[in-house]
Design goal:
By secondary structure, the chain is mainly alpha-helical. It is about 80% helix and about 0% strand. InterPro entries: DUF3243 (IPR021637), Uncharacterised_YmfJ (IPR024702), YmfJ/YflH_sf (IPR038292).
């Protein structure tokens, strides 16, 4: 798991695999995006960025309001989905 957190491409692949699995289970994109937002909130509060990409995402998350964070979460789902 440490490789997944320290390598951004591995992180995107990991997330993409999870998004694909959720879709196969019939979970809607809206529900996936809501979960991504909750995960983003958790990561913001509990996990120190492990690389430059994560630091940038954290800084953007920190300056965004709730609407912007939800948009960011949806975009991360799209990015992860395109990485599968």
């Amino acid at each position: 798991m440490s490789t997944v957190l320290s390598n951004f491409d591995a992180w995107k692949k990991f997330l993409g695999d999870r998004v694909e699995a959720a879709k196969k289970l019939g979970i809607s994109e809206d529900a996936i995006s809501k979960l991504a937002y909750e995960i983003g909130e958790f990561l913001d509060q509990k996990v120190d960025p492990k690389n430059d990409e994560q630091r940038i995402l954290k800084e953007l998350w920190d300056v965004g309001d709730e609407t912007e964070r939800k948009t960011m979460a949806r975009m991360m789902v799209k990015l992860a989905d395109s990485s599968t």
